[in-house]
Amino acid sequence: MLLHGVFPPITTPFYPDGNVYFKKLESNVERYSRTPCAGIVVLGSTGEAILLSDQERRDVLKCAREYATPSKVLIAGTGIESAIETLRLTEYAADLGYDIAMVRTPHYYKKQMQPANILAFYRTVADRSPLPVIIYNFPQATGYDIPAELVIELAEHPNLIGIKESSGDVEKVRKMVEGTRHVRRSATVTETFEAVTPRMLAAGTTAGSNGGGGELVQVAGMSGSPSGKPSSAVVTIVGKMKTRQKEAGFQVLVGAAQKLHPSLDAGAVGAILAFACVAPTACYEIYAAWGEGDAELARLKQDRIAATAQRLVGEFGIPGVKYGMDFNGYFGGSVRLPLLPITGEVKTEVERLLAGTRN
Q1: Mean pLDDT computed over every residue of the chain
Q2: Is 164 among the residues known to form the active site?
Q3: 195 neighbors 2 (Cβ within 8 angstroms)
Q4: In the predicted model, is pLDDT for residue 135 greater than 60?
Q5: Which among 220, 198, 218, 302 has a CA at the least distance from the CA of 256?
Q6: Which of 63, 114, 238, 328 keeps 20 to 30 A from 46, CA to CA?
Q7: How far is it, in rounded angstroms, from Cα 71 to Cα 49?
Q8: pTM
Q9: Are 33 and 72 in contact (CB under 8 A)?
Q10: Is the sign of the CA dihedral 347, 349, 351, 354 positive or negative?
């Protein structure tokens, strides 16, 4: 599965009494589905997943899946401290039709999180997971920072396809990219080299086509090869949908919006950004400018949001993100204890920070 692009790790809306506000979740997912983001992450850290019950996690996954468009890659945060519970939630996400499982590093028993423990955990999950798995490293929250050397070793597993690296360490990103460059994998993409999800194949549609599913037919004459033999550019038809294969390798995504541009320069292929919950288009514009080779524009777009993202996400956290969403037309709403809402003074600052980023 191709993970190139920007993904918002969506928040979980709550009523003031703390119950999940599913109607607002539906509304947010539908709106993110209309943005240029590549997909949506459900039950990440920004989704307050750790504060939800098991049944609430399942209900949130189901609701988001029902209202996301087929063209968006759906990533389910399924990491729980034990491998067996992680697999149970991953299997549920797979049954719903999610594309990827994002599994955070176990961390509660920190002294026991030695290389052998981490290798065994991720290999066990990857061996048994019905979905491709990406590692999720968020040391600011977990207190555990998975070493680049372990990530490089885990990248050899065929079902571990990437990592979300949220440490903000650009040099670590570079090291992981260099250390996994030898990993050769391909992903099914559209004619315009965007991700193809199983839900798209089931529907037989892309943004520009329609029709039912059908038999896979290779169109050698469209491959661009003078001999007409299949090549890396060969087109495969599923119903009325034309697809290709694109080399993906081990895919490194980052979690710090204020360092998106330098992380892309270091070899990251995309990002899962809490700031994209507030301003998805502003984040995408950095990625798009970089992808088009316009380094100056990418830098300007990066400079535009860097201080705001650092303050809003890095310092105010989920309460700040949720208020920023309210300010920008999404539904943020309440947080769950032990998180507290931001003060009126902080709200005023958030509004000032976002005055030039209304999208």
Answers
A1: 91
A2: yes
A3: yes
A4: yes
A5: 302
A6: 114
A7: 24
A8: 0.91
A9: yes
A10: negative
